[in-house]
């Protein structure tokens, strides 16, 4: 691994060279964190929209919304990236600023903050235990830096996660809608005949029977988010840190965006003077493939497990 440090000039954090596994861990952290945040945002919205289309909206409105959802799923990711830079970033900046102003005082009370005393940086305030973790552990999430936006525009992981959520929302919505429509009409009418409200009927029949389908839709959206390249490459100020500073600029990046960013300058070398730059990035791509395979494997296991206990088999 020391040989990789010497031969791959761009495998650095700041001016310090790092090994392949250290580089991969940092890129993997940004990939997984952004994808999970996008999933948390997108799945509840997608399920709500799918339920509205399938069980609440009038027929014509439901058809129109279905066409719009299918159209959004076909938009290329670079369009989302351009839209994110030009439109979404100015919209999110005041929201993120409000989050910083609102929550930073509470985080300071909980974890303390770094202040200058006689020219030395000293950590002061906070509750016992929380202030020690915030001062000594860089990965500890409960610090005032969690909501710090002083470095510049809102081109951070939080914005990237919002972009990813918007991108995977049509896919999850379309699949959930098709799953909800498959609920047997007789079971829905039986629940309504017993005096259930429409929402009670949905919670008793539609959601239990569509549970495996919702898991499949969420995992498909997660797979799309893990491999996303251009949108995050355009909206993120890339960094290679392992922390929870999702509102900070230059903190995180993803495997796919690192490959796209560094491949043009990567050298394959010559037979007499081989270079590890391109093999380095190819290995990152293999790691992303393995991650996607593991996610799909887990999703298949969850779906098969849920399928045996779903209402469809009652």
From TrEMBL:
| Membrane topology listed for this record | Multi-pass membrane protein
The answer, when asked if Phosphoprotein is one of the entry's keywords, is no
Gene3D superfamilies cross-referenced by the UniProt entry: MetI-like
Output the superkingdom of the source species. Bacteria
Question: Which InterPro entries is this protein grouped with?
Answer: MetI-like, MetI-like_sf, Phosphate_Transport_Permease
Record domain ABC transmembrane type-1: where: 28-299
SUPFAM superfamilies assigned to the protein according to its UniProt record, in alphabetical order:
MetI-like (SSF161098)
Q: Which UniProt keywords apply?
A: Cell membrane, Membrane, Phosphate transport, Transmembrane, Transmembrane helix, Transport
Protein's UniProt keywords contain Transmembrane helix: yes
Query: Membrane-spanning residues where?
Result: 27-52, 64-83, 157-176, 217-240, 280-299
| Subcellular location, record wording | Cell membrane
The similarity comment for this entry is:
Belongs to the binding-protein-dependent transport system permease family. CysTW subfamily.
What is the protein name stated in its UniProt record? Answer: ABC transporter permease subunit
């Amino acid at each position: 691994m020391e040989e990789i440090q010497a031969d791959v000039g761009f495998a650095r954090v700041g001016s310090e060279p790092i090994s392949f596994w250290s580089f991969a861990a940092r890129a993997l952290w940004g990939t997984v964190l952004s994808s999970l945040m996008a999933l948390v945002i997108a799945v509840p919205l997608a399920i709500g929209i799918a339920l509205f289309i399938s069980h609440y909206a009038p027929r014509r409105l439901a058809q129109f919304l279905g066409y719009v959802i299918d159209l959004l799923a076909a938009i290329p990711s670079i369009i989302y990236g351009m839209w994110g830079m030009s439109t979404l970033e100015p919209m999110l900046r005041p929201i993120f600023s409000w989050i910083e102003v609102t929550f930073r005082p509470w985080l300071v009370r909980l974890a303390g903050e770094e202040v200058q005393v006689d020219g030395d940086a000293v950590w002061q305030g906070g509750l016992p235990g929380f202030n020690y973790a915030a001062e000594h552990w860089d990965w500890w999430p409960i610090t005032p830096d969690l909501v710090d936006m002083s470095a510049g525009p809102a081109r951070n992981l939080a914005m990237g996660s919002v972009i990813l959520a918007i991108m995977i929302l049509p896919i999850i919505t379309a699949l959930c809608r098709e799953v909800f429509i498959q609920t047997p009409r007789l079971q829905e009418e039986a629940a309504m005949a017993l005096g259930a409200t429409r929402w009670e009927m949905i919670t008793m029949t539609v959601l239990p029977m569509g549970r495996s389908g919702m898991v499949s839709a969420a995992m498909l959206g997660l797979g799309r988010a893990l491999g996303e390249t251009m949108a995050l490459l355009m909206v993120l100020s890339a960094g290679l840190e392992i922390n929870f500073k999702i509102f900070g600029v230059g903190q995180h990046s993803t495997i796919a965006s690192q490959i796209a960013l560094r491949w043009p300058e990567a050298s394959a070398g010559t037979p007499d003077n081989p270079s590890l730059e391109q093999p380095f990035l190819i290995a990152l791509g293999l790691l992303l493939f393995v991650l996607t395979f593991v996610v799909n494997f887990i999703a298949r296991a969850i779906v098969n497990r849920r399928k045996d206990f779903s209402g469809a088999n009652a």
